[in-house]
UniProtKB/TrEMBL annotation:
It comes from the Bacteria. Keywords: FAD, Flavoprotein, Oxidoreductase. InterPro entries: Acyl-CoA_Oxase/DH_mid-dom_sf (IPR046373), AcylCoA_DH/ox_N_sf (IPR037069), AcylCoA_DH/oxidase_NM_dom_sf (IPR009100). The keyword Flavoprotein applies. The keyword Glycoprotein does not apply. PANTHER family: ACYL-COA DEHYDROGENASE, ACYL-COA DEHYDROGENASE FADE28. This is Acyl-CoA dehydrogenase. One of its GO terms (molecular function) is acyl-CoA dehydrogenase activity.
Length: 376
């Protein structure tokens, strides 16, 4: 089927054998808790996907990364979501390392070599809260930072080797700064509790991660800043662009799964099938274009605006495509297997990731008028 041929070819090139292995496992098994998908991804070299080859990684750029994410989502939406949290964190670390002489390259070498997975403890998933709003508090003990707080839901919570988290640094003088903390998952004081109660995306290990007075060396703390107009700094912005593009790819992959079923089974009229195929292919081209802009250096404030526009535009296509595909697949397909209902339910979650259309409306309108994009 040509609809997803490019995505699966790219996935095979970077992660040999993974697509075929996932395709041989029933969807509902891959979407259940304790599924093998995450470890299969680790075994195929997924943790190093966007790390430069000189440091042992796959060296994938944004275009290939979004295509691979779409391919993964057609096999397991939970796996695509979980690994998106890893990849956008790693991409941010790659950007930091390129302008730093610090420990970052050593950490990236370790991630690629030892196939370490990095969970995201940012505010993603919390209503009316930005992706980089601090979720943790850190106090200085004279030698190290001691971090406390919780993140729920936190994907990869049970498979993570490292946790990246937005942290409010509380200095002894009473001032507060925002930073990113890189925390080994085996650190004393980290516990995991059940949280995710929905059947949709249940395989992403999105449970509660609790930190209680966890010791973090100051070298593992990266302070963040904002510009004079309130816009995010370069590192935050780049990470946010990666997040928006990858998370959009996840849900477009879900829609593509349903469209592929319609085309394979030749449901509906030729015009109806063509409408689904062109909608998915067109959205993929739009997303690839935004990713190519990122590869070409467009990860700044304007790039973030374009990434949000891409996400909201593709989200409209996803909703229409999913609804049309479910209708064309028909009632008997719907009642004979839980897969159609599952995919339709999972696709709706694209609207739950920050920022929402409502919360970003003023920021995008301001950007259209020529101002920097400033997200709350």
């Amino acid at each position: 089927m040509r609809l997803l041929a490019q995505e699966r070819e790219v996935c095979e090139r970077y992660l040999p054998g993974l697509d075929a292995t996932l395709g041989a496992i029933p969807l509902m098994e891959l979407e259940s808790q304790g599924n093998p998908g995450i470890e299969l991804y680790r075994g195929a070299g997924g943790p190093g996907l966007v790390i430069p080859a000189v440091h042992g990684g796959g060296g994938a750029g944004a275009v290939d990364a979004v295509r691979i994410t779409r391919a993964l989502a057609t096999r397991s939406p939970s796996l695509a979501i979980a690994t998106t949290m890893h990849q956008f964190s790693v991409a941010s670390l790659v950007a930091l390392a390129s302008s730093s002489a610090g420990f970052e390259w050593m950490l990236l070498d370790g991630v690629a070599r030892d196939r370490l997975l990095m969970a995201s403890g940012f505010a993603e998933g919390r209503t009316a809260q930005g992706v980089l709003t601090p979720t943790m508090k850190a106090v200085w003990d004279g030698t190290n930072w001691r971090v406390s707080g919780r993140k729920q839901p936190c994907s990869l919570s049970r498979s993570m080797d490292l946790l990246t988290a937005s942290v409010a640094l509380h200095d002894p003088d009473g001032s507060t700064r925002t930073a990113i903390a890189l925390i080994p998952a085996a650190s004393e004081g980290i516990t995991i509790e059940p949280f995710w109660g929905s059947w949709a995306l249940g395989g992403a290990e999105s449970d509660t991660v609790i930190l209680s007075d966890v010791v973090v060396h100051p070298d593992l703390i990266v302070e963040l800043r904002t510009g004079l107009d309130g816009e995010l700094d370069d590192l935050q912005t780049l990470g946010f662009v990666w997040f928006e593009l990858l998370v959009t790819a996840c849900y477009l992959g879900i829609a593509a799964n349903l469209a592929e079923r319609v085309l394979t089974e030749e449901r509906g009229t030729p015009h109806e099938r063509l409408a689904l195929g062109t909608a998915v292919a067109g959205a993929a081209l739009t997303l690839d274009g935004a990713a190519r802009d990122l590869d070409d250096g467009g990860g700044g404030n304007d790039g973030l605006a374009r990434a949000l526009i891409t996400r909201f535009t593709v989200a409209d296509t996803i909703r229409a495509t999913v609804a049309g595909a479910v209708e064309l697949l028909g009632g008997m397909n719907f009642v004979r297997s839980p897969e159609i209902a599952y995919l339709a339910a999972a696709a709706h979650a694209i609207g739950f990731h920050p920022p929402s259309r409502h919360s970003s409306a003023d920021a995008l309108l301001g950007w259209f008028r020529g101002r920097p994009l400033v997200l709350d």
